[in-house]
Write a structure and sequence with these properties.
This protein has about 350 residues and is of the alpha/beta class. The protein is built from 13 helices and twelve strands.
């Protein structure tokens, strides 16, 4: 009898332990996943979420087998704060891994490699050159040149107004005739309708002829240099060049973190849509954000004639799932995610997003 009671107790403990383990496993695999719209990775259509990040999670969860619910946040900043505070078990949004973020949360293996890109309004070449020509530097150079032409024309008129008043008459008309002679001499057109005859006039003319050759050569080089240098300034070859422009980026994004690291001022918006609205209205010159998101937005909204994403990128980004600090879930999901990234199905899927 005692032996039967002992065996009964053992079986009861084993059975209850099994149930407890199953309950713990079931509880562990009920996940709350934080997301926010970030097309083409997280797209909300008719109340349902789709996109590359959603599809990646579906593939991972085929093996992980978790019961999950999506918890939507209105902005990237709110989502990251929720992950950091442990309000959600993880986020499958395309979160870029950075040093600052690694101090606050855990990350899985990267599932997508991207870049931080630059979107800007398109400008016609004609408009660019026109803006360069009417720039203050260019106009000031022309004013200086006209002043020099007038000065030499006036000096010649001083000497010629008495001894050669047929070609350089007195008064305002004669001054204009001197200006005409000076301009014709500088450009080496040489109409011959006016020429100094006095010693003083010819001496001034002699000096002006040689000086004009130097000035016209310098002017030609200056115009070409002005146009070329201005175009080079409009090109962005490094992140330091962004200081010359009015920039906008998404709040709490890795782009914002990068700009702050280099001390570059930028206006903050809550999402990509707000950023594109600003650049479309001309309220900002550049919109700095994740390149795939920039390209997708322009393509989906047929803005290719108005906006463009520069081929030059700022930095490489690695998108990963994010977890609260110390989360045990990341260790379970990581190997499954790595295996998923090696499948033909995944590699076929991401071709549409690159």
């Amino acid at each position: 009898m005692t032996r039967k009671i002992f065996l009964y107790c053992i079986l009861s403990l084993l059975f209850s332990g099994s149930i407890f383990a199953q309950d713990s496993l079931s509880e562990k695999k009920k996940l709350t996943i934080g997301i926010t719209e970030a097309p083409p990775f997280v797209v909300k259509e008719k109340g349902e979420f789709t996109g590359l990040s959603i599809k990646s999670w579906d593939m991972v969860n085929e093996k992980f087998g978790a019961d999950f619910v999506f918890k939507e946040y209105s902005s990237l900043g709110e989502l990251l704060s929720a992950v950091e505070k442990g309000e959600v078990d993880l986020s499958i949004n395309p979160i870029t891994v950075t040093d600052q973020r690694m101090q606050k949360m855990e990350f899985s293996q990267p599932y997508f490699i991207s870049h931080t890109g630059i979107a800007k309004r398109k400008e016609s070449s004609f408009w660019k050159y026109l803006m360069n020509i009417i720039s203050w530097n260019f106009l000031s150079a022309i004013l200086i040149l006209v002043s020099v032409i007038f000065a030499f024309g006036f000096l010649v008129w001083i000497f010629e107004r008495r001894g050669n008043n047929e070609e350089f008459s007195k008064g305002g008309r004669g001054i204009l005739q001197g200006f005409w002679w000076s301009a014709v001499t500088m450009t080496t057109v040489g109409y011959g309708d006016k020429s100094p005859r006095t010693f003083g006039g010819r001496f001034i003319g002699f000096i002006w002829m040689f000086l004009a050759i130097i000035m016209i050569s310098s002017l030609t080089a200056g115009i070409a240099s002005s146009l070329t240098v201005q175009n080079m300034q409009d090109e962005i070859t490094s992140i330091e060049d962004l200081r010359k422009f009015e920039t906008t980026t998404v709040e709490s994004s890795s782009a914002e973190e990068l700009l702050e690291q280099y001390g570059i001022d930028s206006e903050k918006v809550l999402n990509a849509q707000e950023g594109f609205e600003k650049i479309s209205k001309g309220e900002t010159q550049l919109f700095i954000y994740d390149q795939p998101i920039l390209s997708y937005y322009i393509e989906q909204n047929n803005l290719g004639d108005e906006l463009e994403v520069l081929q030059k990128t700022i930095k490489k980004d690695y998108y990963s799932y994010s977890f609260p600090k110390g989360s045990p879930v990341v260790k379970e999901i990581d190997p499954i995610l790595v295996g998923t990234l090696k499948t033909i199905k995944w590699n076929t899927l991401i071709k549409d997003y690159k």
